[in-house]
Amino acid sequence: MESEIELDEPADISGNTLKSPYDVTHDVAGLKTLFVNVFFIGEPGEGNPWVLVDAGLTGYANTIKKKADELFGKGAKPQAIVLTHGHADHTGSLKSLLEEWDVPVYAHKLELPYLQGKSSYPPPDPAIGGGGMAYMSWIFPIGPSDFGDRIQALADDGKIPELPDWRAIHTPGHAPGHISLFRDKDRTLIAGDAFVTTNQNAITAVATQKEEFHGPPAYFTCDWQAAKQSVLKLNNLNPLAAGTGHGVSVRGLDLELGLNKLAHDFEARSIPSSTGRYVKQPAVTDENGVVDMPAPISFHVARTLGLGVILGLVSYLLWSGFRDDE
């Protein structure tokens, strides 16, 4: 499951050779933790400052630290950690990392309820259909996690002290306080799950990492209109290089054409089923968490429950069997 995609000498837009298909530029390295990516922003080199974006799946703290050692020297720790959002696959190793790293952790203020023990996320939507990941999504944890005051709200202007060249952009839909990061000087984007470059709804696509442009993972997206507006917002930035929470990094013409097509044909390319729980009515959330939700579409869940149980057991074995430090 941890084998990397082989590409012919991937390079960034400046011609710098990249070591991994998950690297975005020479100073934005990517690392896949089973099926979700984390990113290391910083010029590689002993003692150079850097920032970690997201914390991957549970059990990958040692893998993340080893990658940091490789990039920035043994024992390297970040200046800060920035969370694109608080879903469990993006915060799974955060607790373990914070046991060793006493650094600030930033998230959008609308994510704080789910990261400070106040509210669970809206439940996932197995009824959205479209693939095995959706059918087994009912087993995925929805929190709340409680990191207390270790989590700080991002500034309203999107500025991050430890990343002066970058800005956080609110890109809700997949999660209420989802953010993406953008560096204007070279139009580099870390999109989180605002859009992804593989069909995250399908287990086969997750396994092969086939490059395809899709909206956010459908089974956890709780506001589809907001998700569409977020993709339009990112497309209007005209990024030249992008890393996403799921799938390989993309650059140049591939990115321009893929993101533009996604933005202009969002519903057809991103919503597997028009009968999904949140398709016609979003979850209502505020700074305290979930306020109201549409009713679940139980007949779809019932029809797929047997498959969901089987896939859920497979998922559990993968999540527990492939972890590196528990």
Description:
Helix content is 27%, strand content 17%. With 326 residues, it is of the alpha/beta class. The strands form 3 sheets. It has a 6-stranded mixed sheet with strand order 1-2-3-4-5-6, covered by helices on one side. The protein has a 6-stranded mixed sheet with strand order 7-8-9-10-11-12.
End-to-end Cα distance: 18 Å
Largest sheet: 6 strands, mixed
Mean pLDDT: 89
Number of helices: 10
Shape by Cα distribution: globular
Please state roughly what percent of the residues sit in beta strands, choosing from under 5%, 5-15%, 15-25%, 25-35%, 35-45% or over 45%.
15-25%
Task: Provide the spatial order of strands within the biggest beta sheet.
Answer: 1-2-3-4-5-6
The counted number of beta strands is 14
Element order, helices and strands? EEEHEHHEHHEEEEEHHEEHHEEH
Helix content class: 25-40%
- Report the radius of gyration as a whole number of Å: 18 Å
Unreliable segments (pLDDT under 50, ≥5 consecutive)? 1-7, 299-306, 319-323
Supply the helix-strand structural class. Answer: alpha/beta
